[in-house]
Amino acid sequence: MLKLPSKIMIFGRPGSGKSTFALDLHKATKIPLHHLDKHFYESNWVERDYQEFLDIQQSIVDGDSWIVDGNSTRSLEMRYSKADLVLYFNYPRWLCYLRTFKRLFHKNTEIDDRAENCHERISLKLLRYMWSFESRVAEQIVLLREEYPGIRFVEITSDKDLKKLKRELMRGI
After folding, report:
1. Handedness of CA 115, 29, 99, 165 (dihedral sign)
2. Which end of the chain has fewer CB atoms within 10 angstroms, the N or the C?
3. Mean pLDDT of the chain, nearest integer
């Protein structure tokens, strides 16, 4: 049985269900939830000063308990090194694209993962980012897993994997 971790990092391709799962986990555990996009952007999709963004992340991961949802691959190690559990949502590309387009019309209003006036949108930049996400992080994941072997890493590639993880985590609550 998995002891319920208190520091949980969730990352993966956009549209993979990270934010939905993070919210569900937050509701079940009451562990503070932080969506990185809400800190990376200021109003109207303006990127925050990167050092300020890093400082915000550092203050979050220095805390006693947290769920961090988001990618920011340049600062992946900052979160990974402090996590008890790392969840990599690696669903198929086609499904993530489908979910991303679906979200334009059916966004879960409970998910508060955006800064002010940062409404859902799809851009060519986002689609390219989604396409290359897995190859962009593959080497980094290998290195982080080698550097921090004591941190539990779980790759979720399907709803079946996610249901299994949920059952395991809920037993620890």
Report:
1. positive
2. N
3. 89
Determine the Cα–Cα distance for residues 71 and 136; give it in Å rounded to an integer. 11
144-152 long-range CB contacts below 8 Å, 24 or more apart?
144/76, 144/77, 144/80, 144/81, 144/86, 147/77, 147/81, 148/80, 148/81, 151/80, 151/81, 151/83, 151/84, 151/85, 151/86, 152/2, 152/5, 152/84, 152/85, 152/86
Number of domains observed in the structure of the chain: 1
Closest of 71, 61, 97, 74 to residue 11, by C-alpha: 71
Domain that holds residue 93: 7-171
**31 within some domain:** yes
CA-based nearest residue to 92, from 35, 165, 15: 15
Query: 103: buried, middle or exposed (CB in 10 Å: 19+, 13-18, 0-12)?
Result: middle
| CATH code of the domain in which 110 resides | 3.40.50.300
pLDDT, tens digit (0-9, with 9 covering 90-100), for 44-94: 667 789 999 999 999 999 999 999 999 989 999 999 999 999 999 999 999
| 102 found inside a domain | yes
Torsion of CA 125, 128, 130, 136, to 10 degrees: -110
pTM (predicted TM-score): 0.90
